[in-house]
Amino acid sequence: MLHRTALVTVLAVLFYFSTGFRVARARRTYGVPAPAIAGNPDFERVFRVQMNTLEWMPIFLPLLWLFAYYVGDTGAAVLGVVWIAGRIVYMIGYAKAAESRGPGFGIQAIVCVILLIGAVAGIASALTHGN
C-alpha cells in the first residue's frame, strides 16, 4: 500500500486549496472583483501562485504516483514533501516580488525531474525484468 504517497497527495491538494483562499482574500484586500485577474500587481502575484500551482499539479501528481509504484512509497513521499516545501518557498518569494520566485520554482522543478527519472527507470526495469 502507498499510504505515505496518499498522505502527501492530500497535503498537496490542501496546499492548492490554500492558494485559492489566498486569492479570495487578495481579491478583497486589493479590490479586484471576479472575474478580473489583473489590475493590482500584488493581487496578480497571489493569483499567479495559484495558477502556477495548478499548472504543475498535472505534472507532479502522476510522476509522484508512478515513482511510488515503481520505486517506493517512502521515497515518493519524501520527494512530495520537498515539492510542497518548494511551492511554499515559491509562494512566499512571489508574494514579495516576482523576481523572488526562482528558488521555490527551482526546488519543485528539480523534484519533478527526479520523480520523472525515477519513474522512467522503474518502468524500464519492470519491462526489462518482467515484473
Q: Any idea what the CATH superfamily is called?
A: Membrane associated eicosanoid/glutathione metabolism-like domain
Which fold name fills CATH's third level, the topology? Four Helix Bundle (Hemerythrin (Met), subunit A)
Q: What Rg, in angstroms, do the CA atoms define? A: 17 Å
Please report the distance between the alpha carbons of the first and last residues: 17 Å
Which stretches are poorly predicted, pLDDT < 50 over at least 5 residues?
none
Q: Major sheet: size, sense and barrel closure?
A: none
**Number of spatially distinct domains:** 1
Strand content: under 5%
Secondary-structure content class: mainly alpha
- Shape summary: elongated
Which CATH-level-2 architecture? Answer: Up-down Bundle
CATH class: Mainly Alpha
Instruction: Report the total helices.
Output: 4
- Report the helical percentage: over 70%
Give a written overview of the molecule.
The chain has 131 residues and is an all-alpha fold. The chain has a single domain, classed as Membrane associated eicosanoid/glutathione metabolism-like domain (Four Helix Bundle (Hemerythrin (Met), subunit A)). The longest helix is centred in the middle third of the chain and has 30 residues. The chain is elongated and about 60 Å long. It starts with a helix and ends with a helix. The model has no long low-confidence stretch (mean pLDDT 97).
Give the SSE map:
Layout: H1 3-30, H2 41-70, H3 73-96, H4 102-129
Helix pairs in contact: 1-2, 1-3, 2-3, 2-4, 3-4
Defining traits:
elongated, Four Helix Bundle (Hemerythrin (Met), subunit A), mainly alpha, 0% strand, 84% helix, 131 residues
